[in-house]
Structures are given as C-alpha cells and as structure tokens.
Amino acid sequence: MNGEVYCPLYSIIRYKPCPRPPKKTVLLEMLLEVAAEDRLNLGIEGDKVPDPSWMLDVLATLRPDCYIFEKGYVPALIDREVPQDQHMQVDDSDRFWAGQPKLAMLGKSAKSSYSVMNRILGGSSIDNQIIRARERLEA
Fold first, then answer.
1. Of the four listed, 65, 73, 114, 136, which is most buried by Cβ atoms within 10 Å?
2. Cα-based distances in Å from 82 to 56, 64, 102
3. pTM value?
C-alpha cells in the first residue's frame, strides 16, 4: 500500500434511488466486496465505518446495476432469537390462549401499544389506565 485511498470525484458520482437501503453492516460488506474486486482502497479500517449515504453513493458509482437499486428491492429481514430469560410466561391453565395466533415480532401492529394482545399481556388495559389516572388525581 502506498498511501492512496479511493474517493470518487464529485463530477463522476452517480446518484441512484434506494428508498429502503439494507442495514449498515450489509451495505459495508457489499462495498468492501466491490472494492476488493476493483482493487480499490477505500480507507475503511476497524471501527471507522463511513456514513450509509456515502456508501450508497459510492456503490451506485461503482456498480449502478446493483440489485439494491432495483425498483422492487426490499432488504432481507434478520431473524433474531430471543434469549430464554426474556420470554414472558403466561398462566394458561384455563386454556384461554389455546388456538390463538402467535404474536408476530415484526410489524407495526405487533409493537403497537394499541394491540389487544400487548395490552392484555402487558397489563396496560384501558381499565388499568383509568384506575391509575384516578389514583393520581386522588393523591
């Protein structure tokens, strides 16, 4: 290495739309792979990770036909395993929850505080909220 680092000139940068870019780590892996194929030194070392928008601009300049710039591209979902100690245990001795659909970990409705399952399991039903509000007013 002779101290040279590749950085595209402003005049040659190609901007391509990517409404839903992949995660920063995935984007970094893609950029490093492209740089290795073209034998370019991007100056990315260790914990120093560039801004995702810069990585998208450089990737669009070096590989304008990359699949992340396609119209229907949606980044892959990463399955995360929840540790056993973080699972909530619910008493189902009366089989009330039998046959109910599983609460999805992904999606806005599953994370919403208005979700019926979240209100019941989280103990924040509207009745509990009214009781807590009355207690605060009386105190």
1. 73
2. 31, 37, 15
3. 0.53
CB atoms within 10 A of CB 18: 20
Continuous H helices in 18-125: 24-37, 52-62, 108-111, 116-122
CB atoms within 10 A of CB 27: 20
The residue type at 55? M
- In whole angstroms, what is the distance from residue 131 CA to residue 126 CA? 9
Domain boundaries of the chain, sorted by first residue: 10-69, 93-138
Per the CB < 8 A criterion, the answer to whether 75 and 106 are in contact is: no
At 45-78, the pLDDT tens digits run 878 888 899 999 999 999 999 889 888 888 877 6
Tokens for 59, please give them.
């990737």
Residue corresponding to tokens 């740089």: 35
Q: Which of 75, 79, 57 shows the shortest CA–CA distance to 20?
A: 75
Q: Which two tokens stand for residue 109?
A: 């409705």
